[in-house]
Write a structure and sequence with these properties.
Blueprint: E1 3-10, H1 14-25, E2 30-34, H2 41-46, H3 48-66, H4 82-106, E3 110-113, E4 115-120, E5 123-127, E6 134-143, E7 147-149, E8 162-163, H5 165-168, E9 177-181, H6 185-196, E10 200-204, H7 216-228, E11 232-234, E12 237-244, E13 249-255, E14 262-266, E15 268-271, E16 275-277, H8 284-287, E17 310-312, H9 323-337, E18 351-353, E19 358-363, H10 366-371, E20 376-382, H11 387-392, E21 398-404, E22 410-417, H12 420-432, H13 437-442, H14 452-461
Parallel strand pairs: 1-2, 1-6, 2-3, 6-17, 8-15, 9-10, 9-15, 10-11
Antiparallel strand pairs: 4-5, 5-6, 7-16, 12-13, 13-14, 18-19, 19-22, 20-21, 21-22
Helix pairs in contact: 1-9, 3-4, 3-6
The structure holds flavin-adenine dinucleotide and 1,4-dihydronicotinamide adenine dinucleotide (NAI).
Disulfide bonds: 43-48
Protein name: Dihydrolipoyl dehydrogenase
GO molecular function: dihydrolipoyl dehydrogenase (NADH) activity; flavin adenine dinucleotide binding
């Protein structure tokens, strides 16, 4: 007889593992199915966690090479031991994936290694790497299978010379020249890693700006700062050919609108043009689970697919492909399945690019407000006028608060600056409670902190910043 559960989660990324834990907390009998050897999905194994380890380590290297001297800390030129840096990253990943295994055990969640396929309503067949197939049964099935690299037609990713983010997190030597195709999150974060370690980085972006979708003013400032750090940008440019030679790679590019071609020589090429939902081998068509034109699993407001008892969350459905969005959906879905009222506020999902400086945002951009015809006010405060940033010599960037012109309700907050990824959360909490710029401005902020710039930007909405 098949093992029977209240809930089976296929995939143990941030969406799946969090959903499983929350469901177990609520008393459901839960199983997870994972085809990787370790839990935690893209995020813990080859995404958020290893990339942040490499960003942290390479930033320390850059500090030692370029900034500590200014603080009177004399060092000989730092020596890079890349093997050790990669081991530092792997150790961080190992700690995190083992943490998920521990939480599964603690919450009495059954773990099944293998590839899950939905063979019928309430039935998941699992094919393990070795050994026999087995079938699990459950009232509810959650598809949390995440996403995969988007590929450029005609460009083969060998993960050595032409790499995806996975290969770019494990290069065994610093490339002399790195060409990054796509100026989004991955290109700029991993471009930063290798640039700090000595690579000459050229970003080829199809659109006329980097980080499309981000507030335009922030994105322009971001590009200017990265340029100062040594990045070269080729915007409105398309890649027409990538040829791997014995030594190096030749990338042919031309203006996006057409025109003369140009070739770039590179040691390594990183393809980072987005990610696509991953549903391969799940058997969706056979059971009648519908997907949209982008291959995302279609769900209703309660994460239910076109088939009763089958749900989907995370990167495999619509919305930002972010770990915390997947996690919040996991919690909401577990609560819904357990008969509670789970909910995700999609208007307040922060985003962070973990470069130096960091870029963080929550809510609407100026462009979005303009397009929606909303009458809004802007309060801006530069870090050059913030005491802590001045004394730390981290004055790049600013805080921008967008508030409704009539009600003063905060509609969006954008920060580019050191520690922006930590600072954004006071704005997120404020927006969750539908607070106003005045609320933010009247909240006492400790001195001297970078967060005072958030308060000053909120004051600036009513033209009364103190330090500007
Ligand atoms: P995933 O994490 O992709 O997990 C899906 C899991 O399902 C995988 O383990 C997969 O093996 C498994 N699976 C798939 N099909 C089957 C099957 N049939 N049977 C069994 N198992 C299956 N987001 C952030 O918020 N912050 C960051 O800093 C960040 N950095 C990133 C850096 C990189 C380099 C990358 C690539 C992504 C990054 N992301 C980041 C995005 C983040 O990783 C994803 O949004 C997140 O992992 C999505 O979670 P998920 O649970 O939907 O899916
Ligand atoms: P992305 O969507 O962030 O950026 C892709 C970029 O490539 C865009 O600027 C796009 O215009 C450009 N592009 C698309 N096709 C192109 C082409 N043919 N030639 C040149 N440029 C092209 O995707 P990315 O960087 O691959 O990351 C995937 C996703 O992973 C992100 O969208 C994000 O959801 C997640 N992620 C999140 C991180 C974070 O939260 N800090 C870090 C890394 C990834």
């Amino acid at each position: 007889m098949a093992d029977s559960f209240d809930l089976i989660v296929i995939g143990t990324g941030p969406g799946g593992y969090v959903c499983a834990i929350r469901a177990a907390q609520l008393g459901l009998k839960v199983a997870v199915v994972e085809k990787r050897a370790t839990f935690g999905g893209t995020c813990l194994n080859v995404g958020c966690i290893p990339s942040k380890a490499m960003l942290h380590a390479s930033e320390m290297y850059d500090e030692a090479a370029n900034r500590l001297g200014d603080m009177g800390i004399g060092l000989n030129k730092p020596k890079l031991d890349l093997k050790k840096m990669l081991a530092f990253k792997d150790e961080g990943v190992d700690g995190n994936v083992k943490g998920v295994a521990f939480l599964f055990k603690k919450n009495k969640i059954e773990t099944v290694q293998g590839t899950g396929k939905i063979v019928a309503k309430g039935k998941v067949e699992v094919t393990p790497e070795k050994g026999d197939k087995k079938t699990l049964e459950a009232k509810n099935i959650v598809i949390a299978t995440g996403s995969d690299i988007a590929r450029l037609p005609g460009v083969e990713i060998d993960e050595k010379q032409v790499v995806s983010s996975t290969g770019a997190l494990a290069l065994d030597k610093v490339p002399g020249k790195l060409v990054v195709i796509g100026g989004g999150y991955i290109g700029l974060e991993l471009g930063s890693v290798w640039s700090r370690l000595g690579a000459e980085v050229t970003v080829v972006e199809f659109l006329d700006r980097i980080t499309p979708g981000m507030d335009g003013e922030v994105s322009k400032t971001f590009q200017r700062i990265l340029k100062k750090q040594g990045f070269t940008f080729m915007l409105s440019t398309k890649v027409t050919k990538v040829e791997t030679q014995k030594k190096g790679v030749t990338v042919t590019v031309e203006p996006a609108k057409g025109g003369d071609a140009q070739t770039l020589e590179a040691d390594t090429v990183l393809v980072s043009i987005g990610r696509v939902p991953y549903t391969e081998g799940l058997g969706l068509e056979d059971v009648g689970v519908k997907t949209d034109d982008k291959g995302r699993v279609e769900v209703d407001d309660h994460f239910k697919t076109s088939v009763d008892g089958i749900y989907a969350i995370g990167d495999v459905i619509a919305g930002p492909m972010l770990a915390h969005k997947a996690e919040d959906e996991g919690v909401a879905l577990a609560e819904i399945v357990a008969g509670q009222a789970g909910h995700v506020n999609y208007g307040v999902i922060p985003g962070v690019v973990y470069t130096a400086p960091e870029v963080a945002y929550v809510g609407k951009t100026e462009e979005e407000l303009k397009e929606a015809g909303v009458d809004y006010k802007v309060g801006k405060f530069p870090f050059t006028a913030n005491g802590r940033a001045k004394v730390n010599h981290t004055t790049d960037g600013f805080v921008k608060v967008l508030a409704d012109a009539k009600t003063d309700k905060v509609l969006g907050v954008h920060i580019i600056g050191a520690n922006a990824g930590e600072m954004i959360h006071e704005a997120a909490v404020l927006m969750e409670f539908e607070g106003s710029a005045e609320d933010l401005a009247r909240t006492c902020h400790a001195h001297p902190t970078l967060s005072e710039a958030v308060k000053e930007a909120a004051l600036a909405v009513a033209d009364r910043a103190i330090h500007m």
